[in-house]
Amino acid sequence: MMNYEENPIAKGVLFMSSMKSQENVEQMVMQIKVLCAKRNILVEDVAVEHNRIGDMDMDRPVVKSVVNAIVNRGYEVLVLRNQYDVTEDDSDWEKFVGDMADMDVQVYLADMGEFVGNAYEQ
Fold it and tell me: Which run of H or of E encompasses 101?
């Protein structure tokens, strides 16, 4: 972890599931990167799923690929617009957040401007 003005800078990856046009997705990515920079999160990689059918099953291949990237590249933060980029199911979401915590990965929700907290930890 790097430091900037005495605050640690966390290495992050942004994941987004969207049906929006490429231009709109790129604009959202830039806005989220700026928000993250203000929170000392350096978004090093971006994974965008162009989800035309609206499949929000947590077991879909792209979610697994993002988790593999987190493990293999040592990311400290997973940045999402909101939980619905991963799943619509609340119990799956709780499990996902718990799994991230077990890997020492924080989950940052850009729409809320905050990290997912201890509510899901057991």
Answer: helix 90-102
Q: What is the DSSP-derived secondary structure letter of residue 86?
A: T
Contact 36, 108 (CB under 8 A): yes
Whole-prediction pTM: 0.87
Q: Which of 45, 40, 34, 33 is nearest to 3 (CA)?
A: 40
- For 45-70, write each residue's pLDDT tens digit: 999 988 766 667 788 888 999 999 99
pLDDT in tens, 80-116: 999 999 998 999 999 999 999 999 999 999 999 999 9
Q: Could you tell me which of 61, 71, 74, 68 has the C-alpha nearest to residue 11? A: 74
Bridge partners for 106 per DSSP: 77
CB–CB of 105/72 below 8 Å?
A: no
Phi/psi region, residue 60 (left: phi>0; alpha: psi -120 to 50; beta: rest), is beta
Provide the sign of the torsion angle of the four alpha carbons 95, 59, 45, 93, taken in this order: negative
- What's 83's DSSP letter? G
